[in-house]
Design a protein that fits this description.
The chain has 244 residues and is of the alpha/beta class. The chain is built from 7 helices and 8 strands. Helix 1 crosses helix 3 and helix 2 packs across helix 3.
Length: 244
Amino acid sequence: MMQSSHSPSALLPNFRTSLPSFPSSPSTFLILHTLPTSTSPSSASRVRTIHVLDSSFNPPTRAHLRIALSALQSTNNASKPQRLLLLLATQNADKAPKPAAFEQRVAMMTILAQDILDQYNSSNSAKSQDSSADEEPLAVDIGVTKHPYFHNKAISIDESDHYSSPSSTTGKQLQPQQVHLLGFDSLIRLLDTKYYPPTHTLDPLSDLFDKHRVRVTRRTEDGDKYGTVEEQDSVWEALAKGER
């Protein structure tokens, strides 16, 4: 069978070219690919909500698929148009960049992006009578960042102006809200003060929580490794009350 020019294997040479030059570039955030490939570049500036699924994608898993679909399917109309960003950090706070090379991971992310689009669109078609005919089609961006920490990633996405739009009243660039999609294990790392020297407090996260949101999915597939459902729920309930 002939491969599409946009298939992951066909895109590998492009990824092998663009990824090595990224670390030495002045950019800290870069979009490598967007699906569907017919997506208009101008559509990024109309986005109200960006769901950011940040992972090592080594490899992408069914859990990544579930986390993304759950977030996309629960977005209300006031928060649309929405978009999904699959984000790979070339520097990770904990994990070494192996065994899969970055270009192979980006290729796998492309497969995941297509799976997400297929299932999201299929789900929307099944309930089309309840949805707006004017809803903008979902697009999935595949990007990389140099930052290993969530708060710096959020700043980098904003400062790139990739999703910005000018205010009709002030002319200032407006940024959509980012919703960072985390598993419970990632929430624990996000709240671990060892990652925020020299003060080792959660103050660096203030801007992230002031401007954007975090959506957390329970981890229950590993027994009680991350605690019971009730124990996991108690962590974000404490956060909501300002107790952490």
